[in-house]
Each structure stands twice: as structure tokens, then as C-alpha cells.
Write a structure and sequence with these properties.
Number of domains: 2
Radius of gyration: 21 Å
Helix content: 40-55%
GO molecular function: DNA-binding transcription factor activity; sequence-specific DNA binding
Mean pLDDT: 80
CATH superfamily of the largest domain: Regulatory protein AraC
CATH architecture of the largest domain: Sandwich
Protein name: Xylose operon regulator
CATH class of the largest domain: Mainly Beta
Largest sheet: 5 strands, mixed
Organism: Alloscardovia macacae
Strand order of the largest sheet: 1-2-9-4-7
Pfam family, one: AraC_binding
Structural class: alpha+beta
Shape: globular
Strand content: 15-25%
Low-confidence stretches: 1-16, 19-36, 54-61
Keywords: DNA-binding, Transcription, Transcription regulation
Length: 324
């Protein structure tokens, strides 16, 4: 154990955990930010605090879009509610829930709007821990052919899992850190990993594994294609035909897998790019609309206001005032 632990502790990094600090729900800078991948060369773990930010124009649409990564993800919900879509299944997170997301699982999160507005700014909403795949592969036999159960029905186990995450987050406070804090961090994370392996880890049956991987692969292909072409004139019908779906089945498949309709997903991608262009360029709304895949400025305004509850002009003015 000591050898494997040291192998992931470069001398340049005194902490086992790569702390990203506090991420504000609904903060404009966070909405457009890409998912950060755990860099195991800096350490095998990373802890993130998600906090409320009620005054952002993005508060109604801050969604963690579909993504996947090699790291194991453990999420503790502290307050509020959210919908997690994991490998095509929906799970509703409530305060006290701890969800475990297996490596390479396709997942997204849609928080309840009340999560943003019902709590003061910087109220901790959730804690997220990533544990690196290489680190786990060293410790866990047959990891590649196993899957973690998303949650346990044992309330005492959930409480201990959440308590470990809270303690790990507390240790990121500079006022409590010492040169030996990384030892405690490693101990707590390994305890959590032990609990997860003892109660959540199970071998995948071949038939289920094949079906799940096929489902994920198809969804990944659709998402990747959309992310590459969303600035073009895409429609649900066009994408359904490309991937050999009927229009009706495609609509149901995408909504069941992600929690969003395909056109809502497309709109969010386009509006996110529009928000970046509004703040980084002086382009007209007509030009931005065309560059983002909207048919005209009117379409941009309608979708942007639906997403962010503010017009593009108001958003540009607001952001300009913030930078002055």
C-alpha cells in the first residue's frame, strides 16, 4: 500500500488531492468551462466543492453536460436536488445521497433550479471526488471487468461515505494543512475506496456489459458528432438518419439517456458559444447567430433568453460592466 501511494505522490506536490477549490453553481465562467480531467501525474485524487451562486444569469441552466472519464467519481449531495443521468439511467439525488460513477460511464447532471435560488451564495451544495484509474487499477483486481453500483441502500454506509468526503474537503483549508496532511488524505480516500469495493463493486455480466457498452458507444458517437457540427444547420431528423434511428426512437433514446431533448442540447451548445462570442468579440448579433448555427439573430435572441433569462444585448452589457 505504501509503495503504491508514494508512486502517485510527486515530490513537487505535497498533497494527495488536486483541489480545484470551490466551483459556483450558475457562475458564468463555470458554465462554458470544459470538464477538467484528473491528471494523475499530479496525484491520484481530486476534490471539488460545488457551491450556490444565486445571482448569476446562468443559474437556470447550469448543467454538467454529458461526459466521461477514466477516474472514478463519487458525489455527495449536501442540499438541494438534482437529476443524474448515468449510462442512460436517471437517478434523483437528494440531500444525504452519495452516488458512485464508474470509470468511463457516460453521465450528466441537471440540478433543480431551486438549488440555485433557495440558498445564500457560496452555500456548499455538493462534494465531488475523483479517484484516478491507474491508482485503482493497481489496488483492485479485475477493475476493467467490474462496475460500481451507483448507490447503496444502507443509510449508515451513506453517512460514512459522505463524512469522508466532508473531511477530505475540510483538509483543503490552508489553515488546517500541515506537511503531513497528505497522509491523512490518503488514509481517508483509501478507506472510502475500501467501502466502495466492499459494497458497490460487482462484476458485470457479459450480456449486460455488452449491451451497456453498445448503448454508451452509440450515445458517445451522437454527442461527439453534435459537438463537432453544432455550428452548422443540424436538425434532429438529420442526426437520427445519420445514425440509422427513426425520428421517434432517436428522440426517446436521447432524452432517456441525457435528460434533455436533442434540440435542447443543441440549443445549449450554441448559446454557450454565443455567450463566449458576446464577451470576447464586437461581432453583431446577426454574425454571432450565423457562427453559432442559428438561422438568424431572432433565433439567437429567443434561445438565449430561454437559456439564460436575459437577452444577448443585456448579457453583453452586463459582462462589459463586470470587466470595467
Amino acid at each position: 500500500m505504501t509503495e503504491s501511494f508514494r508512486a502517485y505522490h510527486p515530490s513537487t506536490s505535497p498533497s494527495a488531492l488536486q483541489s480545484k477549490g470551490s466551483v459556483r453553481l450558475g457562475a458564468p465562467d463555470d458554465h462554458a468551462a470544459p470538464m477538467q480531467i484528473l491528471d494523475e501525474s499530479r496525484g491520484p485524487f481530486r476534490i471539488v466543492s460545488i457551491t450556490a451562486h444565486s445571482h448569476s444569469a446562468y443559474s437556470a441552466s447550469h448543467i454538467v453536460e454529458n461526459h466521461w472519464h477514466a477516474a472514478l467519481e463519487v458525489v455527495a449531495t449536501l442540499v438541494g436536488h438534482s437529476h443524474h443521468y448515468i449510462d442512460g439511467r436517471e437517478y434523483i439525488a437528494q440531500p444525504g445521497d452519495v452516488f458512485v460513477i464508474s470509470p468511463y460511464s457516460f453521465h450528466s447532471v441537471i440540478p433543480d433550479i431551486t438549488t440555485y435560488v433557495a440558498y445564500p451564495d457560496d452555500t456548499p451544495v455538493a462534494i465531488v471526488l475523483h479517484i484516478g484509474y491507474q491508482y485503482m487499477d493497481y489496488l483492485i483486481p479485475n477493475l476493467a471487468s467490474s462496475v460500481f453500483q451507483v448507490r447503496t441502500d444502507d443509510p449508515s454506509l451513506r453517512e460514512r461515505e459522505a463524512a469522508i468526503l466532508r473531511e477530505l474537503l475540510h483538509l483543503q483549508n490552508p489553515s488546517v494543512r500541515t506537511v503531513y496532511t497528505h497522509i491523512l488524505e490518503g488514509s481517508l480516500t483509501n478507506e472510502l475506496l475500501y467501502l466502495l469495493c466492499s459494497t458497490h463493486l460487482q462484476p458485470e455480466r457479459a450480456a449486460i456489459s455488452t449491451s451497456r457498452h453498445k448503448h454508451i458507444a452509440r450515445l458517445q458517437q451522437i454527442i461527439e458528432y453534435t459537438d463537432e457540427h453544432y455550428t452548422e444547420r443540424l436538425s434532429q431528423q438529420m442526426v437520427a438518419q445519420k445514425f440509422h434511428f427513426s425520428k421517434e426512437y432517436f428522440a426517446r433514446f436521447f432524452k432517456d439517456s441525457t435528460g434533455l431533448t436533442y434540440m435542447d442540447y443543441l440549443s445549449k451548445k450554441r448559446c454557450s458559444l454565443a455567450a463566449q462570442l458576446l464577451t470576447s468579440t464586437d461581432e453583431s448579433l446577426t454574425s454571432i447567430a450565423q457562427n453559432c448555427g442559428f438561422s438568424d439573430a431572432r433565433g439567437l435572441i429567443l434561445h438565449f433568453k430561454k437559456e439564460y433569462h436575459i437577452t444577448p444585448h443585456q448579457y453583453r452589457k452586463q459582462q462589459t460592466q463586470h470587466t470595467d
